[in-house]
Amino acid sequence: MYREVELPGLGVLWRSERSVGVGAPTVIPADGSADIILRDDELVVAGPSTRWLLGRGSIHGATIGLRFAPGLAGRALELDASELRDSLVPAADALAPEVRRRGERLLRALGDSVRTAAGERPGTDPRIALRARSAQPFELGALDWTAEALRMARRGATVTEAAARLGYSERQLQRRMLLHFGYGYTALRRVLRAERARGLLGAGIAVEAAATRTGYSDQAHLTREFGRIVGTTPARFVAANVGAAPSRNRTDGGQAAGSAASGA
After folding, report:
1. 247 inside domain
2. Region labeled Disordered — which residues (predicted)?
């Protein structure tokens, strides 16, 4: 069982319960986000993803994760986000000790809130507890330029248009994207476009029509990008998912798969 709760201004807290077949590899589509994950009592970091990952479930109990909204990983984790792009590493190897301790405390506390929401205390709204705790340990403040970059990328604006809108040179935008998002603006556009295509295909839109509506040059272009970012073909995705909302779950982290360039 999987459930999640949004933490406004930060990201999404999620909890994945151990299930039958645990340990089997799971394909996790790229979502452009980074996660800190408490799995089997170990804290790990899944870096910003621009290509599909291969993950596994927890062996002992539930897995709890915090998925940062795209653009917040660098500041939240106090590092250059590009250092962790498309990778899964132990938190001890990636984060400063204090950041690691704060993150683990937060996940344990918020994980309890999500478990409570499952019915241990009927009538308790976990969002109340989550709001009270979500400001710590990650005091992010406003990063208005990241939100605008996301809006521009969702509209399909070019890097030149985005840089002009934000008041940066293209080189300045690239540097800031790598630091905060972990990848370049072009990679963000590609991930978001594939996400839009997933939504259309999941709603029953034909592959060719989905390619046209999301700005791919043709069906073959969609198929190539879909395989690289989502980890399957559009046809297989449709067969498995039509009528169901496309999952955004990074589940339990993963191992980077394939050797495609990040597009940064």
Report:
1. no
2. 243-264
